[in-house]
Amino acid sequence: MEIFEYIANVFADVSNPKKRIFFGYLLLTILIALVWLVAVRRSSFKRALGQVFDRKILFSPSARADYKIFVINRVFTMFISPLLLSQLAIATALYYALHDIDFLQRGVFSDTPKGVIVALFTVTIFIVDDFTKYLLHRWMHRWPLLWAIHKTHHSAETLTPITVYRTHPLEGLLYGMRGAVAQGTVMATFLFFFGNAVDLYTVLGVNVMSFVFHVTGSNLRHSHISIRYWPWLEHILISPAQHQVHHSIARQHHDKNFGVAFAVWDWLFGSLYLSERDTDLKFGLPPSEAHSSRLLDIYLRPFSDMARVVRRRYHRIFRPKPVQASSDKTPVTR
Ligand SMILES: [Zn+2]
Ligand SMILES: [Zn+2]
């Protein structure tokens, strides 16, 4: 592969409407932020522009680390993704496995009008995808081994749309496998019960629901523009301000708002936190867990943290502490 091809590949997401940092979504993000600041926050246009393009945020050491991680992770992805099991492979295997279950009748709903099948599939795949993201995200905060990996994302001290890429490659791998399993399962189930009419309603080749999520400012989740929704809506959809709460180091915000598009999962499972007006949030990790934005730290620290978690467990299993050591509590993670 030539160097120009590499560079084009690294920045492919900017021209891909399936990705959050597609340039069209970024432009809309800027527009939404400006309208919000001027119309709702009563800022002057000049001040609003200054807030959206705040150099202190866009060029902070944390943001500069985000940009480097973005490029490095894209190169990782180029090499790793061909090795991963695709959703098509999982869908095919599951589809044939379903044939072996006697009481399931193939094509039982194939008489359903095509429009209904497509609408059902479009909605189901989005909901299942969103719910599995919620679950994995929640586990990444709960389980110390996974927290060691997810900490990379939370080490960001300033938020820009590129912060969404500030993840350890192992997290990318886990989310990739989750996506393949979730989408493959929905595809196989629909094909089996509804037949070949299964299709997606799309805009620019993107699931229409994902498209709506992105054009309504998904990029603002990782920004300092804290757009809030009405409280009733924040029970249904995660607002940008609610994801910013998720990044806050304040103790009361830990383990809250794991959702991506829907807040209903957080509401159902007790992790919902509504945004609050005029709270000055500080982003990052608490001092006890903080590490630098140096690339070596970002890529290698999760391995040493995971090794420490394993050592601690090993120590607990084979060298139990005396009974009086009642401080044996699960470490607080977020
Ligand atoms: Zn998180
Ligand atoms: Zn985030």
Gist?
The protein has helices at 3-10, 23-40, 45-52, 55-58, 61-80, 87-99, 114-142, 144-154, 169-194, 208-215, 231-234, 240-247, 264-268, 295-318, and strands at 202-203, 206-207.
Tally of alpha and pi helices: 14
Give a count of the beta strands, DSSP E runs of length 2 or more: 2
- Percent range of helical residues: 55-70%
Give the distance, in angstroms, between the N- and C-terminal Cα atoms. 41 Å
- Small ligands present: zinc ion
* Rg estimate, integer Å: 22 Å
Give the tally of structural domains.
1
- Report the structural category: mainly alpha
Q: What is the spatial order of strands in the main beta sheet?
A: 1-2
State the shape.
Answer: globular
Low-pLDDT segments: 325-333
SSE order? HHHHHHHHHEEHHHHH
Oligomer class: single chain
The biggest sheet amounts to: 2 strands, antiparallel
How much strand content do the residues show? Answer: under 5%
Describe the structure.
The chain is mostly helical. The chain has one domain (3-309). Helices cover 56% and strands 1% of the residues. It has 14 helices and 2 strands. It has helices at 3-10, 23-40, 45-52, 55-58, 61-80, 87-99, 114-142, 144-154, 169-194, 208-215, 231-234, 240-247, 264-268, 295-318; strands at 202-203, 206-207. A two-stranded antiparallel sheet has the order 1-2. Strand 1 (202-203) and strand 2 form a beta hairpin. Residues 325-333 have low confidence and may be disordered. Bound molecules: zinc ion (ZN) (2 copies). One zinc ion binds at residues 153, 222, 243, 247.
